[in-house]
Every structure is written in structure tokens, then in C-alpha cells.
Amino acid sequence: MTGSPSSTYAGKLVLFHGPGKALECRSAQWKAPQGAEILVKITHTAICRSDLHTHCGHRSVPTPTVLGHEIMGRVVAFGPSASRMDLRGEPLEPGDRITWSIYAHCGDCFHCHSGWPQKCTDLFKYGHEPVSSDGSDSSGGMASYIQLRPGTSVLKLDPKIPDHHAVTLNCAMATAEAVVRRAALSKEPAPLVVVMGGGYAGLSTAAMCKAQGARAVMVVETQTALHSRCLDFGADAVFQPEEDALKTWVMNQSAGRGADHVMEMAGSSAAAELGLELLATGGGLMLAGTVFPSPSIPVDPERMVRGCQTIAGMHNYAPQDLLAATRFLEEEGRNLPWDALHGGTMCLDQSQEAFDEAQRSPGKRWILTP
Question: Between vectors from CA 72 to CA 112 and to CA 162, what angle results, nearest 5°?
Fold first, then answer.
């Protein structure tokens, strides 16, 4: 269906005015999609840890804004020039349940042509952009509808994937897939991997590493209450960062060499520093969790050179990672206990309560529905 230019769609949205200020739930109207836009009725939005960092002031965004970037929904209408094909090349129709990239990119700039579309010079990020005082140009997930811009990668979802599993695909899971892809795990010899953080992204990373042939995976998690679920997601061992047994386990598993890959998903400079200590000759540290201002860490350049070691960062992901993460959830990851990571579901009117619960429930996703 192509929306009539005069059509409007009524709903609600939640405005974020800044840390310490009340969230404002208000009525809003959405216009029919124009040009290559796609209008989507949002069905679920997860409160990501990044949303919590913004909400409490650990990182700044222009305000007012509509938060929420882990989003899914159903197609309502297409603009007259909108693509009717998804990332797999499958046709899109009104009513299709979809996920999409957390950004729109131009496809023509240096970064887009270099394989870094998430760093496009004309990047637009859902759930991160300023909006008008009435929210009429809303682009976040804490709303009833959203207009997808040209340059957004859209993917139709398998109906067998439950909603509260699929909603995290376009942030936590796709980012985990990007980290694992860039780490380029070897097949022979199978690598030893250390994942820093047992949150949603960390558990996704651990499970993906095991699925791609890692010989052993250790998760480092500060909260002992979360240790058992790390094992459920494929970890062979779980330690707190201060435990002496942590380094002993790594050395015993690697014949004294160290970890081939350390993946920092916790958003902790201390975790990154510990990761450097654990690296084997030829090992690599991947940084993905520190997406807010963080303390610097010491790096010994001689040790890095003599150890032939690398440090790399990964922020967000490319469309191929969203597709790969979705395939993982459809196949190898379909039987993992994702339900254990679901904190609860609330409606938009309960957004403040949902944020409060999410702050009290580290490692779980609270989900908002219109």
C-alpha cells in the first residue's frame, strides 16, 4: 500500500527532555510516507543500556528527543519511490513484521564505499536525533509509529522468532555479530576467546563465538548473580575480574599462551585493560562496549609490537551483520534461553517506570509497546 499524501496516523510518543527530567508521554500525528520513506507501526522497543546511559546523563544527546533504537514493527505504507525489497531480496508488503538498521546511510560517501556505512558522512541514527518540541518529526522507538528514511536496511522477520527475541537484533545482536566478524576467528587452530561482560551483547558474542568454532569461551562478569546464565549461553567458564583463577584458567586452556581474542562488551576501561593483559602472541583486543566517555588505559607499545598484537574498535555494524545476526537467531541461536534476558513489558504510558526497572535489572531488557 502506498499512503495517500493526505493520510495521517494518530498515536503516542515519549519525549526525553534531559537527565533528571520527567519523560513526557503525549499524543502525536504521523504523515503518510513521502518519497522513499516507509511508515512502520512500532510493536516493540527494548530499552538498551545506551538508552539508560543517556537517560541518567552518562552520555549527552540533543534534546528534546525520542529515545529507543532497538525497535521492530509492521509495515503500514510505502512512499511512492520506496524499495519493496528487503536485505535478503525478499518482497516487502504492508503488514510484514520487520527489523531495520539503527541508521540510514547515503551509500555514496567515502565511508559507505569503504565498508563503514555506520560512519556515513550524512548518517541519521534512529533514537538519537533531536526532534521538535511536539515530537512531530519523531525518529525513535518510544512511539507508536516511525518513518524509515532512504538508506535504511530493512529485513523481514521469520514468524518463528518471538517478538521479545527479535527486538534486540538491530543493536545488541548485530553489534555482537560485527565484533565477531571483525575479529575473524580462525578455524584451525580453534581460538580461545574471552568476552568481557555478561549482558545482552556479551552473551550474544559468547554464543556466536561458540557457533563459529571457538575452542573455549570465558566470560568475565562482575555480578555473580549473572554467572549461571553465561554458562547457559555457551561460556565454558565465568569469573569476576578480580579472581586469581581467571588468569590461571586462561593459561591452562592455552598452554600458557594467553587468549587469542578478547572482546570488550561491558563498557569498562578496566575490562579493556585486563583484556590486554590476557592476550596471547598474535592476539587481538576488540573494543565495542565503551560508547560513552571512559577513562583512558595504559598501553605498552613495545609489548604490542613484540607480541604482534592488535587493538581494534567496532561501533555499531554494517547491514551484513544485521542479516548474519538474524540468521543466527533463526538457526544456531534459536534454542538459547533468550527468555531469561527479558525483564518485562510495559506500555508507553509506563515509560518512566520501565526505565526505573531497567536500571535495577542489569543484563535484562525491558520492552515498551505502544
Answer: 125
One-character DSSP codes across 133-168: TT-TT--SSSBSEEEEPTTEEEEEPPTTS-HHHHTT
As a whole number, mean pLDDT of residues 119-133 equals 95
pLDDT at 1 over 70: no
How far apart are the C-alpha atoms of 343 and 202, rounded to whole Å? 17
* Residue ranges, CATH 3.40.50.720, the chain: 173-313
DSSP secondary-structure letter at 48?
-
Residues of the chain with CATH 3.90.180.10: 8-160+334-369
CATH class of 173-313: alpha beta
pLDDT in tens, 49-70: 999 989 988 888 889 999 999 9
What's CA 31's distance to the chain center, in Å? Answer: 28
Task: Supply the pLDDT for residue 240.
Answer: 97
At 91, is the pLDDT very low, low, confident or very high (cuts 50, 70, 90)? very high
**Dihedral sign from CA coordinates of 205, 206, 207, 208:** positive
Kindly report the CATH number that applies to the domain delimited by 8-160+334-369: 3.90.180.10
SS3 306: helix
Which of 5, 6, 154, 3 lies closest to 84 in space, CA to CA? 154
